[in-house]
Amino acid sequence: MTLCLTAGEPAGIGADLCVMLAQTAREFPIVVLADQSLIRERAAQLKLSLRIVDYATTPEVTRLAGEISVCHIPLTVPAQAGVLNPANAQYVLDILDRAATGCMKGEFAGMVTAPVQKSVINAAGIPFTGHTEFLADVTQTERVVMMLVGGGMRVALATTHLPLRQVADAITAESLITTLRILHRDMVQHFHIANPHILVAGLNPHAGEDGHLGDEEIRIITPVLNQLRAEGMNLTGPLPADTLFNPVRLASADAVLAMYHDQGLPVLKYASFGGGVNVTLGLPIVRTSVDHGTALDLAGTGKVHAGSLAAAITLAAHMGGMENG
Ligand SMILES: NC(=O)c1ccc[n+]([C@@H]2O[C@H](COP(=O)([O-])OP(=O)(O)OC[C@H]3O[C@@H](n4cnc5c(N)ncnc54)[C@H](O)[C@@H]3O)[C@@H](O)[C@H]2O)c1
Ligand SMILES: N[C@H](C(=O)O)[C@H](O)COP(=O)(O)O
């Protein structure tokens, strides 16, 4: 089996990461999904030698240093490092579609994603909030869970790319129950933790301070945790988010559920930026990603770190059952 790697926003560092990956022999076979000329040109810009093996004509995937298998997906217009162009937004989505289809058909054991620039896809008039939501749509999965792994932590989110103003309304008993069930199940299935201990953050400062600073903890979160504990889940919370992330609490936890994006991710990224992995739980396919964005300022400069990509590939291979190569 093989993995695929989507090259992401063509003006960003995704192409750099693909070129960097090709410089050394790979443990796991991986096919880059991108425009071949983009990868070739970025290699030249980085002054790195690279032989591209066309996946369409040579489906046997190369793992050799200095070469990489590329499944050609054409850019709409030529791309320039660091310069966004909405004309290539559909190209970015074509790559993701190809990857998801390949995973669903069993052609790929999983997909690893380089970063996309959400704003330029939106600027092209295409609604898009993230890979997480896009992949839920294309695989027709009602609910998925974004989780980042890094710095010795696993941090999952009850809501993903939502304006802050909409977050409180999105925290419902139904959504929390489904999210916690997915998180619990995938901890068991993919991370081999028999009875995962999950710390659950409150929504409000000090987890609502007994209802004096918001009542979502009393009305929604606590009843959900009680219901799921009765089913056997090992849950602690709702905990104040500002004191949840301390070493003593984290030492006993297998995962944390934060209520929203910027409650959980800044903590994890402070601990592990550039080495963490974003994984989508609850999908019928395996999907992992780098923990950073498009870094337009660094595209084509040779100053990019590829540690997060390496970690994302290792986790995808593990989740896809490829440990033995
Ligand atoms: N998986 C994804 O597709 C993904 C993840 C996060 C952000 N994004 C998108 O990326 C865009 C830019 O986001 P941002 O500016 O918040 O974050 P960013 O990660 O692109 O950049 C933040 C800072 O980190 C640096 N940086 C990022 N990756 C690096 C690497 N591999 N090596 C060295 N330095 C690196 C950048 O130069 C910049 O200074 C946004 O559109 C955002 O939505 C996409
Ligand atoms: N919040 C995500 C992160 O920090 O990695 C990022 O926006 C990417 O999200 P998607 O994987 O849904 O594109």
Automatic annotation (TrEMBL):
<dbReference type="InterPro" id="IPR037510">
    <property type="entry name" value="PdxA"/>
</dbReference>
<keyword id="KW-0560">Oxidoreductase</keyword>
<dbReference type="GO" id="GO:0051287">
    <property type="term" value="F:NAD binding"/>
</dbReference>
<dbReference type="GO" id="GO:0008615">
    <property type="term" value="P:pyridoxine biosynthetic process"/>
</dbReference>
<comment type="subunit">
    <text>Homodimer.</text>
</comment>
<dbReference type="GO" id="GO:0050897">
    <property type="term" value="F:cobalt ion binding"/>
</dbReference>
<dbReference type="GO" id="GO:0050570">
    <property type="term" value="F:4-hydroxythreonine-4-phosphate dehydrogenase activity"/>
</dbReference>
<comment type="function">
    <text>Catalyzes the NAD(P)-dependent oxidation of 4-(phosphooxy)-L-threonine (HTP) into 2-amino-3-oxo-4-(phosphooxy)butyric acid which spontaneously decarboxylates to form 3-amino-2-oxopropyl phosphate (AHAP).</text>
</comment>
<dbReference type="GO" id="GO:0005737">
    <property type="term" value="C:cytoplasm"/>
</dbReference>
<keyword id="KW-0862">Zinc</keyword>
<feature type="binding site">
    <location>
        <position position="261"/>
    </location>
    <ligand>
        <name>a divalent metal cation</name>
    </ligand>
</feature>
<dbReference type="GO" id="GO:0000287">
    <property type="term" value="F:magnesium ion binding"/>
</dbReference>
<feature type="binding site">
    <location>
        <position position="206"/>
    </location>
    <ligand>
        <name>a divalent metal cation</name>
    </ligand>
</feature>
<feature type="binding site">
    <location>
        <position position="161"/>
    </location>
    <ligand>
        <name>a divalent metal cation</name>
    </ligand>
</feature>
<keyword id="KW-0170">Cobalt</keyword>
<keyword id="KW-0520">NAD</keyword>
<protein>
    <recommendedName>
        <fullName>4-hydroxythreonine-4-phosphate dehydrogenase</fullName>
        <ecNumber>1.1.1.262</ecNumber>
    </recommendedName>
</protein>
<keyword id="KW-0664">Pyridoxine biosynthesis</keyword>
<comment type="pathway">
    <text>Cofactor biosynthesis; pyridoxine 5'-phosphate biosynthesis; pyridoxine 5'-phosphate from D-erythrose 4-phosphate: step 4/5.</text>
</comment>
<feature type="binding site">
    <location>
        <position position="269"/>
    </location>
    <ligand>
        <name>substrate</name>
    </ligand>
</feature>
<feature type="binding site">
    <location>
        <position position="287"/>
    </location>
    <ligand>
        <name>substrate</name>
    </ligand>
</feature>
<keyword id="KW-0479">Metal-binding</keyword>
<keyword id="KW-0521">NADP</keyword>
<keyword id="KW-0460">Magnesium</keyword>
<dbReference type="InterPro" id="IPR005255">
    <property type="entry name" value="PdxA_fam"/>
</dbReference>
<dbReference type="Pfam" id="PF04166">
    <property type="entry name" value="PdxA"/>
</dbReference>
<feature type="binding site">
    <location>
        <position position="278"/>
    </location>
    <ligand>
        <name>substrate</name>
    </ligand>
</feature>
<feature type="binding site">
    <location>
        <position position="131"/>
    </location>
    <ligand>
        <name>substrate</name>
    </ligand>
</feature>
<comment type="similarity">
    <text>Belongs to the PdxA family.</text>
</comment>
<dbReference type="GO" id="GO:0008270">
    <property type="term" value="F:zinc ion binding"/>
</dbReference>
<keyword id="KW-0963">Cytoplasm</keyword>
<dbReference type="GO" id="GO:0042823">
    <property type="term" value="P:pyridoxal phosphate biosynthetic process"/>
</dbReference>
<feature type="binding site">
    <location>
        <position position="132"/>
    </location>
    <ligand>
        <name>substrate</name>
    </ligand>
</feature>
